[in-house]
Amino acid sequence: MPFFPSSSSSSSNSNFTLFSPTQNPNTLSKFSFKIPIIPLHSSSNLNTTTTTTTTTTTLTSSCSSKDSNTPVLEQLSQNDVVSVEKELVVRRPVMTADQFSGEGESVKVKEEGNEKKVSKGPDIDVGLTKLAKKMPIFEPEQRVVERFGSTENPLTVNLDLALYRAKVLSRNFRYQEAEEMLQKCINYWPEDGRAYVALGKILGKQSKVAEARAVYEKGCQATQGENPYIWQCWAVLENKMGNTRRARELFDAATVANKRHIAAWHGWAVLELKQGNIKKARQLLAKGLKFCGGNEYIYQTLAMLEAKANRYEQARYLFRQATKYNPKSCASWLAWAQLEIQQENNHAARQLFEKAVQASPKNRFAWHVWGVFEANMGNISKGKKLLKIGHALNPRDPVLLQSLALLEYKYSSANIARVLFRRASELDPRHQPVWIAWGWMEWKEGNIEKARELYQRALSINSTSESAARCLQAWGVLEQKVGNLSAARRLFRSSLNINSQSYITWMTWASLEEKQGNSVRAEEIRNLYFQQVSNYISPCDKIFNFLL
Length: 548
Prior knowledge:
Number of strands: 5
Radius of gyration: 40 Å
Number of helices: 27
TPR repeats: 296-329, 432-465
Strand content: 5-15%
Structural class: mainly alpha
Protein name: PsbB mRNA maturation factor Mbb1
Oligomer: single chain
Keywords: TPR repeat
Region (Disordered): 45-70
GO biological process, one term: regulation of translation
Shape: globular
Helix content: 55-70%
């Protein structure tokens, strides 16, 4: 409703009357409001400045109704009218001087002590439209700065670029920079699960398990538990740490979040396979096929189960299905080649290796397995050549250099092998098998102290992994050879605490006792191994207290 100036506009109080249509002029009731008018500030480029003073203008509004005796008017007492007379702060946007330029009439506003003339544009709507285009009225600048650090909202493409940069930094082992970048991504896009997954994996690579758990938990809360990738990565982390029960719960949560998430079904099935629950694993794989359709990983795992059960034709059929659904699946070709190697079909295995490298030319596993296969078949030069090709395509992979170093040690010289081991350890200082293989070579060369130092270095990386179990077993053999039998027993016991299913460790320990004339104790150790295999339970303190 527009304002119209009354005839009393020339008075000292600058009164304005707010008119509303009515049929009874006697029912007009007037209310007086004191409104402080804050004068507009001039821009910084003006030559003169004005003093800001608070002025009070009384606006007299005439309110009317069809019936003056309505309950609403009756409720307005004298105190209510007085309480309305409060100072109302009028918020006005800051305007520049050029917005007041142009021809137009002047409006005189009387102040308490001085008068000031402000030039008003011919059309106030045009001026406000221009002002709205220039000022972020609907989102204050302070809020934008608090959220994004600038007045512009970051686009989603910035998240994709940041995730790619973090991935590159992680490949170059610049974990600190990658963590900082991913943390910014989480702050800017808290509901996107990719940043949580990437950050959790980087922390897991550095053995920062507690921090990785915190990141995954925070991600599940931010996404309200609807992101299956975070649940699945968290389950993989717990499985690596040996928390099988917790891993099952997390895999189950991932399948609840999205029953079509194939990685959760497959990871859960692999967990059950490692625990010896073959029937449960088959059920999970069947559910994966039911909800997700054909998948090369599901078919590949089922094929390996069939091969383990000596049903080779069924295994080959499942491998064909896996490679049919994804001809670029290098893992399926390699697993099929391993089956043919077990069946001594070397020609078929070579053909499958060729298809594997054709499907993924830079796949380091394909070149490594093929090179080791040729070396075991007596083709040493071809094996070295394949490993060198794989290293040229994957210059930062330590496993290829490790296998090449072992071949050089066996068929060439220990000095060349030492150079290769040193280069491999520099590429990835946290890769335990490199230190273990290097220690084994030094032991064979008679450098006992050097071998112990390398074994200790491997255990300092991670003392609870499968590689740590193999390292303890190798170290136990070393101590047995040099005559430290008590140390060898302790090392064998520590190895079995990590992996109770190791046939080599149990038999090596039994052999040690038998050589010492303790045939009864050696038989007890063998019986304990078969008990472990039949029941598939983890070793407990009672078993080892019995052996002490």
